[in-house]
């Protein structure tokens, strides 16, 4: 004998509340509709679902057993409804986000942690990539959101770019670097020390070549290359090497690491850090929430970073 799942769920609601009217209200149905369902079930069974004359209602043995199955159905349906409502509010779901390594490690991973304190039921899958990989990931629906530095015309058709921080690069060094004590820094001073090369494919690598052109040199002494942000910082703190790095990254690490800005003026890229996504695509509510959180946090940081930049006495 087969019973409809919705009928079992109605029986479970009545057993749960001990009343037909209260059970009906619990699952959003009318009392007459639930009464008809129980009557039909009893006719099919050929025996009562509830003991006669008992208030609140007390299920018979068969009624109790069928209600147990119905409760599983009812609770699953309720959880499904809660999931849908949470998804629509942006309180549940998975956001797939990727970005250039230095910014993801210096800023975004911490912001994701802050975000998940507020939205603990949203999962964030983070990965790394430079602009070509990020654009491909968004186009193929493997990513919901990307964080990367981009020039004015780089986004391309089909993409939407939301700027969050103006780009500025600096030469970074350890806080005890001998050049920090030198007055009147010159371009030749930069060539007297080894360098760390940015990751292959990174915009910073192109920026390093621009620095070389500006000081009239074709190459420098590369001692270390291809490292993550953590490995670059570890190497930088133990040597007199120099590297090109976004100023905002050094700002983010200013209290935790022995790395600082070498106050020399270098060519600046026409590039802005921002959020990249598909233009005109349907927006996942959870993804929109994370995007708004990142935009807000960078809005808070922008003036602090600017004040830090203005405090540096730039030379050369």
Ordered list of secondary-structure elements with their pairings:
Layout: H1 5-17, H2 20-26, H3 31-45, H4 61-89, E1 93-99, H5 101-118, E2 122-128, H6 131-139, E3 145-150, E4 159-166, E5 169-174, H7 187-191, E6 195-197, H8 203-214, E7 222-225, H9 229-238, E8 243-246, H10 247-252, E9 259-262, E10 272-278, H11 285-311
Q: Describe it for me?
A:
- One of its GO terms (molecular function) is DNA-binding transcription factor activity.
- Keywords: DNA-binding, Transcription, Transcription regulation.
- InterPro entries: HTH-type_LysR_regulators, LysR_HTH_N, LysR_subst-bd, WH-like_DNA-bd_sf, WH_DNA-bd_sf.
- This is DNA-binding transcriptional regulator, LysR family.
- Residues 1-60 form the HTH lysR-type domain.
- The chain has helices spanning 5-17, 20-26, 31-45, 61-89, 101-118, 131-139, 187-191, 203-214, 229-238, 247-252, 285-311, and strands spanning 93-99, 122-128, 145-150, 159-166, 169-174, 195-197, 222-225, 243-246, 259-262, 272-278.
- It has 316 residues and is of the alpha/beta class.
- The chain is rod-shaped, with a radius of gyration of 31 Å.
- The longest helix is centred in the N-terminal third of the chain and has 29 residues, at 61-89.
- α8 links the parallel β6 and β7 (222-225).
- The strands form three sheets. It has a five-stranded mixed beta sheet with strand order 2-1-3-10-4, with helices on both faces. Strands 8-5-9 form a three-stranded antiparallel beta sheet. It has a two-stranded parallel sheet with strand order 6-7.
- Helix content is 48%, strand content 18%.
- The N and C termini lie far apart (89 Å).
- It folds into three domains: 5-89, Arc Repressor Mutant, subunit A (Orthogonal Bundle); 93-166 and 271-311, 3-Layer(aba) Sandwich (D-Maltodextrin-Binding Protein, domain 2), CATH 3.40.190; 169-262, 3-Layer(aba) Sandwich (D-Maltodextrin-Binding Protein, domain 2).
């Amino acid at each position: 004998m087969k019973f409809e799942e919705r009928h079992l769920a109605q029986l479970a609601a009545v057993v749960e509340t001990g009343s037909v009217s209260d059970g009906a209200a619990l699952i959003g149905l009318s009392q007459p509709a639930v009464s008809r369902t129980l009557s039909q079930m009893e006719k099919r069974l050929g025996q009562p679902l509830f003991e006669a004359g008992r208030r609140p209602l007390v299920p018979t043995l068969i009624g109790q057993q069928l209600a147990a199955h119905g409760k599983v159905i009812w609770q699953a349906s309720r959880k499904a409804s809660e999931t849908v409502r949470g998804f629509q509010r942006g309180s549940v779901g998975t956001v797939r986000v990727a970005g250039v390594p230095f910014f993801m490690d210096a800023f975004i991973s911490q912001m994701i942690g802050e975000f998940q304190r507020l939205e603990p039921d949203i999962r964030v899958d983070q990965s790394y990539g430079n602009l070509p990989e990020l654009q491909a990931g968004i186009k193929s629906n493997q990513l919901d959101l990307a964080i990367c530095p981009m020039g004015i015309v780089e986004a391309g058709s089909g993409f939407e770019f939301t700027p969050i921080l103006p780009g500025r690069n600096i030469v970074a060094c350890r806080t005890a670097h001998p050049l920090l004590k030198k007055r009147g820094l010159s371009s030749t001073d930069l060539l007297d020390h080894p360098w760390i090369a940015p990751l292959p494919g990174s915009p910073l690598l192109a920026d390093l070549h621009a620095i070389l052109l500006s000081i009239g040199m074709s190459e420098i002494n590369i001692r270390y290359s291809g490292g993550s942000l953590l490995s670059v910082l570890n190497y930088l703190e133990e040597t007199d090497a120099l590297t090109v790095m976004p100023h905002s990254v050094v700002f983010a690490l200013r209290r935790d690491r022995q790395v600082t800005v070498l106050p020399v003026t270098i060519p600046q890229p026409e590039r802005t850090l921002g959020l990249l996504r598909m233009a005109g695509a349907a927006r996942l509510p959870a993804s929109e929430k994370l995007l708004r959180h990142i935009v807000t946090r960078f809005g808070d940081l922008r003036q602090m970073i600017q004040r830090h930049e203005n405090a540096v006495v730039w030379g050369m």
